[in-house]
Amino acid sequence: MTHEHHDAHGHEHDHHGHEAPPHHSFKHGFLKWAGGWISTTNHKDIGTLYLMLSLLMLFYGGSMALLIRLQLFQPGARFFDPNFYNVLVTVHGLVMVFGVIMPAFVGLANWMVPMMIGAPDMALPRLNNWSFWILPFAFTILTISLFVAGGGPNFGWTLYAPLSTTYGPPSTDYLIVAIHLMGISSVLGAINIIATIINLRAPGMTWMKMPLFVWTWFITAFLLIGAMPVFAGVVTMLLFDRHFGTSFFNAAGGGDPVMYQHLFWFFGHPEVYIMILPAFGIISEVIPTFSRKRLFGYEFMVGAVAAIAFLSYVVWGHHMFTAGMALGTQFYFMYVTMLIAVPTGIKVFNWVATMWRGSLTFETPMLFAIAFVILFTIGGLSGLMLAIVPADYQYQDTYFVVAHFHYVLVAGALLSIFCAVYYWLPKWTGRYYNETLGKWHFWLTIIGVNMTFFPMHFLGLAGMPRRITDYAVQYTDFNMMCTIGAFIFGFSQLLFLYNVMATIFGKGKQADGRVWEGTHGLEWTLASPAPYHSFTKAPILRDVMHESDAKFEHLE
Amino acid sequence: MEKKVSHRKIVIITGAAASVMFSFCFAIVPFYSIICKATGINTSLPTSDLVNPASGENAHPVADLTREVTIQFVAEHNMGMPWDFYPKTKSVSVHPGQNAKVFFYAKNTTDKDMTVQAVPSITPSEAISHFHKIECFCFKQQSLKAHESKDMPLIFNVDKDLPKETRVITLAYTLFDTTPKASRKG
Q: For residue A98, what are the CA distances in angstroms to A185, A219, A230, A270, A308?
């Protein structure tokens, strides 16, 4: 009887789904717990593991950022020696890119993609387990590299040759192996996501009915497959140059250090879109929910993501305007780079149009989404400024660049991850987080982020170079402001940590299946917390769509 | 629902794509040198105009007295080169089509006899095909005995077809140690 009752409401899972697997508590002992998490092939477990790793790495990389800001609080480089400062800058960048942003997005994809397309699990569950468990080893090796004799990697996250070849410390080899592992993990994860999205969509879930988060991840997965192997290849060349007597990047042997930059940025530019496209997907889910409207211009949103992904492969030269480049090539890269503003503009306008005349409420995820739209646009505009060749000659290697990429990566990607966690946490845990704490976290984060990174624009325009451990006295005031902002931003993340953990361990109001009033899509037809196996029977998409159609009828 | 593709097929295709991109990274190396050769950017090639004497009308060009071009000289050492090496003139202004002569100073500061090769490069790259050398120390390897020094001559002109908007050309030399290994040890 109960089964029929559930089916009648479109809740397609059976009751086995409600039994918690043995590794979700210590009831069966530590070994069962650890063994369960290590060998799990469940998409939700693996998603949780990814997100937990990302949370840990956020505090790891964040502590390094605070140490950097501590050193820069006053001129005089009074806390660490310059080499250790360089190590901090390098490892902070690598940890944040490969340890925080990317695993968090993969974790969200693991949790949400099967639920959003009506699948029981990921297509290749064992591969999924493997792609996660490679990562802790990669970051252990990266951490070991800090303690190798000769100091940690100190050449910046870009690993430019010859800094990483001729002048690279022995720890560079550890870093290269760590990067290989991260690359393997990302590519396997991407293959899995592509297979899942192509094969496991519920009947009726056609391509143009897929939620935008799924679309953005589908395209991101292709970017990963195209870009990560190039990075793996180029660090392999570094390894060869270091140990096997090749001269890929050594001019005396017929190589060219500028070729390293070409290859690195051929990976590096798609990489920055790997870190922002899933964010676009998240924002495109959250804004319609809290505006109680459909997403404005769905088809254009999908097209814009595809256009951005395509353009990302043909603009890498804008990172190298001052490295020596023919005039025509500079023009080409400048114009193509500025072209990216068109699809990105489409996205921003469509988000604004989605909110236009909607019934807006401002729960924490919505606050983060709105902040994302505003702050990401600031980051995008400074990106346009950097795209202009003559202007770039001034901005190159100054704090203006630092301000730009922190606006897109922190105020963009990271805020979208916070947004996603708050948005889906009730679905994952069955409980609402503490809304008051969430709002405190939001406002402190926004104040902290802007106080940290906005003054950097002016520092850069005034000529303060990046990656320098000391600076001239006239930059002191703004640097102090940045440092204070950074500490506000950093410590307010403890609120986030507490809020999330408290919710996971059973504090907070119970959530129902719909969680938010304006939700739409398959993941909200499941109970909260979502059953261990999402859709053991394929959901009937027509019923779900009918419900959301009815809800938005008055707007058509 | 449309027909399913097997997981195996997707894994094979995407896995192959990833391997292709990995190999692409290495395939870029020959591709890169082909581009550099074809566009003339690679000025260190033995066939490059910048390391061979100009011939024909480039050696005796027609002067264009209506404008002047500034030529800047830069000297650099490849890693570990202990020599003193610098241009005696930092920059000169010339009319296109007029020959100019400058000297680079080189001193072997070591206790060993050494042979070096200077490799030129020109910025902006649009000027490369308009820059002609009549005589240059970079045409062949230069040997100096221990603690010997020398003023090395460079005679050049830029032709009148140089684009009007190019007003400054930078000529940089990087000095490479080409002493044979056996004598380097001794």
A: 11, 19, 15, 14, 21
